[in-house]
């Protein structure tokens, strides 16, 4: 896979990850906002209901003291539990029901679920509150100012701080307003987006109308910690991803510079190698003035030039293979036609006796690029010779054909490869470690080239080896 393509894939995955994170975070925050909003609205309704209860009980205090016009201290504090304990002796549900025979409480005889039980209890409580209003309001009028004070305290206890407007509306008189309280001196237009809550005092007659300004701000203030932490987390992740992309882009640039340098260097090396080859050949073959010692050194120079030339050609082949314009030219290749000259070539240039036995049938053919098939077999045979060790070099080349694939295997009896190193022998520039000794020269590119070329042929290469017993490399071509 090319570096440019890998970079595009990584950048795409990072962008998709950020988009997914943003969407999931937004979806979660939206759900939290809806939940908090409903909870806040429930708290406001509860505050109105509890303020109504406490205002009723405060009037009960006045009735019990026969003080119908007494002022109620603004410092008065009340709780639901103590209110009920104080009043349960002076007023009971039975007494209210007995005094109101025309009003019946509807309830379910048997509730099947918890929700039905809760609905039944809520209905019962609401009916009790309405009956209490019917009985007490006839004796002592509602103190709207006191209700407003209790409501304000209830909202503050529930951490709901926002400007509000409270009105008491009588329905029978064409929705006439009996009482109005506005906490701030805002203009009338500023209440257009307010949220309205109603609490019925007596059905069909009176109800409290509460408008709260900027309701969304209440919810957002409650979610401030989560919103800020989510935003900071997203910013940190975004910065990390951007830095990662920057680092990858920088590494990509370094990789391209390194590749260009390697390509240019190998191209430039071909000229001095060719000149050195020509000079060495002239001295060896066309000079009568050199002695045996000089000839020996010239032969050593030629061997090293051959080795260096082979490495340069291998690097050039890899550089061509990594270009975006690289294309294979597959055709049906007779393997024997490629192997025969290759085997003779290795027998001639090997510095020790080599036995290469080919068991490839004459009509054995694979679909491959002829040039690269030649190079892959050359690399495998060359490695088998180089790593034959001190044993006699015996190499066997076999083939197999099935309905799914055709295989070519090169087997040697050399030093072998340990199981741990077998997993990495196809890596680029990897060489089996042997301490500080490098008896066999090379760059670790041959097997990498074989694996890469087989991948481009939609095939694979495998290795089986045992240390001290040799190795078998197999090329798998799909039919």
Description:
- By secondary structure, the chain is α+β, with helices and mostly antiparallel strands.
- It has three domains: 3-222, no CATH class; 225-320; 327-478, Histidine kinase-like ATPase, C-terminal domain (Heat Shock Protein 90).
- Helix content is 54%, strand content 16%.
- The strands form three sheets. A five-stranded mixed beta sheet has the order 6-8-9-11-10, with helices on one face. Strands 2-1-4-3 form a four-stranded antiparallel beta sheet, with helices on one face.
- Helix 1 crosses helix 6 (215-222), helix 3 (93-99) packs across helix 4 and helix 10 packs antiparallel against helix 12.
- The two termini are 23 Å apart.
Write the layout of secondary structure elements.
Elements: H1 3-64, H2 80-87, H3 93-99, H4 114-136, H5 144-157, E1 164-170, E2 176-182, E3 195-202, E4 206-212, H6 215-222, H7 224-285, H8 292-321, E5 330-334, H9 335-349, E6 354-358, E7 365-369, H10 370-386, E8 393-401, E9 405-412, H11 419-422, H12 446-456, E10 460-466, E11 470-478
Parallel strand pairs: 6-8
Antiparallel strand pairs: 1-2, 1-4, 3-4, 5-7, 8-9, 9-11, 10-11
Helix pairs in contact: 1-2, 1-4, 1-5, 1-6, 1-7, 3-4, 7-8, 9-10, 10-12
Q: Report Rg.
A: 47 Å
User: How many H/I helical runs?
Assistant: 12
Mean pLDDT: 78
Given the helix and strand composition, which structural class is it? alpha+beta
Number of strands: 11
CA-based shape = rod-shaped
Share of residues in strands:
15-25%
Through-space gap between termini: 23 Å
Side-by-side strand order of the widest sheet: 6-8-9-11-10
Reported for the largest beta sheet, the result is:
5 strands, mixed
How many discrete domains? Answer: 3
- Residue windows where pLDDT falls under 50 for at least 5 positions: 68-97, 99-111
Listing every helix as H and every strand as E from the N terminus to the C terminus, the arrangement reads HHHHHEEEEHHHEHEEHEEHHEE
Helix content: 40-55%
């Amino acid at each position: 896979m090319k570096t440019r393509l890998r970079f595009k894939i990584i950048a795409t995955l990072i962008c998709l990850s950020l988009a997914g994170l943003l969407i999931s975070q937004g979806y979660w925050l939206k759900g939290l906002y809806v939940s908090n909003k409903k909870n806040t609205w429930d708290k406001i309704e509860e505050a109105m209901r509890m303020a109504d209860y406490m205002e009723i009980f405060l009037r009960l205090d006045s009735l019990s003291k026969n003080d119908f016009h007494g002022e109620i201290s603004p410092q008065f504090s009340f709780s639901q539990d103590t209110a009920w304990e104080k009043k349960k002796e002076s007023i009971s549900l039975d007494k209210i029901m007995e005094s109101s025979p025309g009003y019946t409480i509807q309830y379910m005889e048997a509730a099947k679920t918890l929700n039905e039980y809760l609905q039944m209890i809520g209905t019962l409580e609401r009916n009790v509150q309405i009956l209490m209003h019917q009985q007490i309001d006839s004796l002592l009028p509602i103190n709207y100012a006191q209700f407003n004070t209790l409501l304000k305290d209830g909202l503050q206890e529930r951490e709901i701080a926002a400007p509000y407007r409270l009105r008491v509306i009588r329905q029978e008189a064409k929705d006439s307003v009996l009482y109005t309280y506005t906490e701030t001196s805002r203009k009338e237009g500023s209440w257009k987006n307010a949220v309205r809550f109603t609490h019925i005092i007596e059905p069909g007659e009176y109800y409290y109308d509460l408008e709260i300004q900027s309701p969304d701000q209440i919810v957002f203030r409650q979610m401030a910690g989560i919103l800020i932490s989510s935003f900071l987390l997203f910013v940190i992740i975004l910065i990390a991803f951007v830095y990662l992309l920057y680092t990858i882009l920088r590494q990509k640039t370094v990789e391209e510079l390194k590749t260009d340098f390697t390509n240019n260097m190998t191209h430039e090396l071909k000229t001095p190698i060719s000149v050195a080859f020509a000079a060495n050949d002239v001295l060896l073959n066309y000079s009568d003035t050199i002695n045996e010692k000089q000839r020996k050194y010239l032969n050593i120079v030629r061997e090293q030039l051959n080795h260096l030339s082979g490495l340069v050609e291998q690097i050039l082949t890899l550089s061509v293979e990594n270009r975006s314009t690289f294309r294979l030219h597959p055709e049906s290749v007779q393997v024997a036609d490629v192997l025969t000259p290759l085997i003779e070539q290795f027998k001639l240039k090997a510095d020790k006796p080599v036995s290469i036995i080919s068991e490839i049938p004459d009509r054995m053919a694979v679909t491959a690029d002829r040039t690269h098939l030649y190079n892959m077999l050359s690399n495998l045979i060359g490695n088998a010779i180089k790593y034959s060790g001190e044993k006699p070099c015996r190499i066997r080349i076999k083939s197999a054909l099935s309905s799914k694939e055709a295989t070519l295997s090169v087997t040697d009896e050399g030093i072998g490869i340990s199981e741990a190193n077998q997993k990495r022998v196809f890596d680029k520039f990897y060489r089996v470690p042997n301490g500080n000794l490098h008896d066999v020269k090379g760059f670790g590119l041959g097997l990498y080239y074989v694996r890469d070329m087989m991948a481009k042929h939609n095939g694979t290469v495998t290795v089986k080896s045992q240390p001290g017993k040799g190795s078998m490399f197999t090329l798998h071509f799909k039919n």
